[in-house]
Design goal:
single chain, mainly alpha, 2 domains, two-stranded antiparallel sheet, 5 helices, about 60% helix, Histone-fold, Chromatin accessibility complex protein 1, DNA-binding, coiled coil
Length: about 130
């Protein structure tokens, strides 16, 4: 595990994880089912999180436009979340960016469709009562 050293702590000792353990502890304790957290579980959760983020970034870079630009962009991540079955659970967290004008247009269209459906429902209710 020494090859996974990400940095050094205050005492100069090598660290196995680079994410702040205190923040991860706060996030874990925010769950009502968690009463106490073992230090080993905390470190393993931090390491697993780092490996997951690394895998997501690498996958997004390789399958996105990042190779051409030599950069990983938000759109690479959101495309990965949308298109890859493995990362589908992230689609709500990493939505595709759209312009506000396009979003407002989509909302208007959706409201128009809902109004049409409501009108159709009203007409079918009137016919059923006849």
């Amino acid at each position: 595990m020494a090859d996974g050293v990400a940095g050094k702590d205050k005492c100069g000792e090598p660290r196995l994880v680079s994410l702040p353990l205190s923040r991860i502890r706060v996030i874990m304790k925010s769950s009502p089912e968690v009463s106490s957290i073992n230090q080993e579980a905390l470190v393993l959760t931090a390491k697993a999180t780092e490996l997951f983020v690394q895998y997501l970034a690498t996958y997004s870079y390789r399958h996105g436009s990042g190779r051409e630009k030599k950069a990983l962009t938000y759109s690479d991540l959101s495309n990965t979340a949308e298109e890859s079955e493995t990362f589908q659970f992230l689609a709500d967290i990493l939505p595709k960016k759209i312009l506000a004008s396009k979003y407002l247009k989509m909302l208007k269209e959706k409201r128009g469709e809902e109004e049409e459906n409501d009108d159709d429902d009203d007409e079918s209710d009137d016919e059923a009562e006849s």
